[in-house]
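To whoever picks this up:

The parser on our side crashed when reading a file containing two proteins. I've narrowed it down to the boundary between the first structure block and the second sequence. Both blocks are reproduced below exactly, byte for byte. First block:
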Amino acid sequence: MDLNLLAYFDALISEGQVSRAAERVNLSQPAMSLALKRLRELFDDPLLVRTSKGMVPTSRARELIGPVREILRRSSDLLRPRGHFVPAEAAGSLVIMSTDYVSMLLMPPLMRQIETIAPGVRINAKAVEPDQLKYLFESGLVDIGVGYVVNPPGELRIRQAFEENLVCIARAGHPTIQGRLSLEQFTANPHVQIRPGDMRYALLLERALSQHGLEAAVGAIVHDFILAPEIVASTDMIAVVPERMARRYQSSLGMQALALPVDVPPLNFSMIWHERTHREPLYQWLRELVLHICEAL
């Protein structure tokens, strides 16, 4: 149905006269008369009837005017240009998916910012589910992902967030490692290996060692970043972790942060999101805020 007919209906009922209704919507009188004819056919009702006091709406027309005006209002709201986004007025729950390590870096400064400038926004931090990326983003269960992303689905947009070097950690009182780390020490001491989600940087390490015909001894495999420094601090095991994590726990847990004895490329952490939220002001604002925080890490 032509929505213009509803606007003409509103004008006809408001003015009670074809000529004035035509002027109101900038339409010729013959065109308005034709519109009235079409409306009568559409609703199977005269809509306006002539009396001694002029044209008056029928009972059916009076029933219709409220719903018609609501449709016109909603149509106007739908087509109205978006206003300037104001974080302080924003409200809603947004889901960010990341590893525990990225959440550890990102969430405290992010929540400080949101608490100050957008208190109506709630953040839900979700653990990485690499095998469900496409479904989670398409269904709206996740709004933003931040992590070491390997081959994201083609439907997702991606942008680099920050870069991270890898270092080796060992406890301060380690019996054989003090201050420097040789390739022999690196392969002889058992490793706490971390394999959370798509953060499979252990593969980068394996490739680097394979060029020397070597491989690392694995003493434990964990799926949480936070566990690795705790285990290293209380054993003679070592672990390869992101440098920011090593610096964070170096003093509190009494650990050494050591350069790797092999060349391992830095990790590129990226932010991913779905096309469905790409142009939405709230999500655009959140992405820019996350990127700003990542740049300052």
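<<boundary where parser fails>>
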Amino acid sequence: MPKTQNWQWYLEKVGEGEVHMHATEKTFYSGETKFQSVGVVQSPVYGKMLILDGDTQSSQLDEFIYHDSLVMPACILNGNPKSSIILGGGEGATARDLLACKTMESVEMIDIDDEVVVLSQKYLPEWSAGAFEDKRCKLVIADARKYITETPQKYDVIISDLTEPLPDSPSHNLFTKEFFEIISSHLNPNGTFALQASTGDVHNLELHTIIHNTLKQVFKYTRSYISRVPAYDTFWAFVLCSNDADPLLLTETEVDKRIANLVTKEPKYYDGITHKHMFSIPKYLRAAISAQTQVLQDNKKFEFAETTGAAF
């Protein structure tokens, strides 16, 4: 067991009445950007960790679980992705995994906070693993909503790797029905859209159900899925959307076949069995999503904002 006398602790509020504690051995950076607070610390359990506004974003030990979950299903469902765009993704790991697709010709990464990108390149180069130097990758420091609204480009894969849409978050207006309609209009035929969509645990799932049901108003296929990310100490939820293909129809054999044909290096987390597990969401989450749908149909309790953010 490592010695504890030099440890400090950071407390992460994960909900009303709940905090999680992480020991830290070293602080590489602590400060404020124009948009958010940033910390890069060393954990005796998880290695280096990136923290934004007091929330763990990723850790050296298990970031592959989060990023495989976010990127791989969208690429595998598309089957032949050549163009992609990332909304957010400051550490560069999302770009890294998109670039691992043999067919990928271009990856655009749009992040509003250039300081986080620079800090990640300095302190967390393992995350991007050379992605920013890849000639197929284009980094743009800009407001993601404005950029994708104005670009004439369409994409095979769109990934939203943004912070949660809390009222004081810079990503608040990137989870609205209006914005998801913009996303849909920028997908090529058979295009896929995947996003991180808050927690999927039984005691903290309202935000996910609202995001899911906002997306359901826009896309033909809207499928929630979950992965347990140890550094988050919870099941993290995602949503995969398409107007042409349903991830629930992919068999284990087909997923493994597409991975072998498409990906340059076998993913550490994602394969056919994991795909089936991820999309087999528990009954409590299915029930919560359905209940949220019924609330919308029955009494319009939640109004989905056009410009100011999703209803939560």
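After patching the parser it read the second block fine. The longest strand covers residues 187-199. The two ends are 43 Å apart (CA to CA).
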